[in-house]
């Protein structure tokens, strides 16, 4: 639930642009408030395009009781971020631009939105066979550590690492975008809701009961189409 006494997010964002970036070329309001997913702690993500800005930067402020995250770019720097997001398969800026509500536009926003939507539709680079092999090895190594771990505290952290590695593997091998923190879960749901429920249940059961069985089965099922666990014979960097 949001603060009932706070001004509406779009009004705060527009006022902020008018007061602090009156000469910018364009601005967008993005994030959870645009998607209808805002919570008590949500902030306002504002993407600003200002060709007078020499280089891109990020800044945090609080205005009218709203935390604001600014992502400031000129009309060229955003493309470097689009490219970086594409290569790491985490489309943070393209997603904000594509979903963003226009706060100000001097005629530049449509083209930038089109670039963002094209990149999102295109999808990320396909993992090579070599990359998949390497990922299999590190997942196997972490899984074996998890299986052999008898220390509950260490086991929790190993499970966290395993969850991150496996979720990345599932999404990348299925040509889906990935994300960090809450966006990883959202990305899994976009890929397959039923699989995500099974995935979360397996890890949640371990955190609650200490039983590793469901996680081990889950990981083995995911790795099976790619050759299963990998240790013997793996090599990297050998000349």
UniProtKB/TrEMBL annotation:
UniProt cross-references to InterPro entries, sorted A to Z: NT_sf, Polymerase_NTP_transf_dom
Gene3D superfamilies: Beta Polymerase, domain 2
Protein name from the UniProt record: Nucleotidyltransferase domain-containing protein
All copies of domain Polymerase nucleotidyl transferase, residue ranges: 28-53
């Amino acid at each position: 639930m949001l603060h009932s006494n706070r001004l509406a997010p779009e009004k705060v964002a527009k006022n902020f642009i008018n007061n602090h970036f009156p000469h910018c070329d364009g601005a967008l309001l993005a994030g959870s408030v645009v998607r209808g997913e805002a919570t008590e702690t949500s902030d306002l993500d504002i993407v600003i395009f200002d060709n007078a800005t020499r280089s891109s930067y990020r800044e945090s402020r609080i205005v009218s009781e709203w935390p604001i995250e600014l992502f400031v770019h000129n009309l060229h720097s955003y493309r470097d971020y689009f490219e970086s997001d594409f290569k790491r398969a985490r489309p943070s800026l393209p997603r904000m631009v594509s979903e963003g509500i226009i706060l100000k536009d001097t005629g530049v926003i449509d083209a930038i939105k089109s670039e963002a939507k094209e990149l999102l539709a295109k999808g990320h680079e396909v993992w090579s066979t070599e990359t998949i092999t390497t990922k299999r090895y590190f997942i196997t190594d972490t899984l074996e550590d998890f299986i052999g771990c008898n220390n509950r505290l260490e086991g929790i952290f190993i499970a966290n690492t395993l969850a991150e590695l496996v979720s990345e593997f599932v999404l990348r091998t299925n040509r889906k975008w990935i994300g960090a923190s809450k966006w990883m879960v959202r990305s899994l749901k976009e890929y397959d809701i039923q699989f995500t429920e099974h995935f979360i249940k397996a890890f949640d059961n371990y955190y609650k009961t200490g039983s590793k069985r469901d996680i081990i089965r889950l990981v083995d099922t995911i790795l099976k189409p790619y050759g299963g666990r990998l240790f013997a014979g793996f090599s990297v960097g050998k000349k």
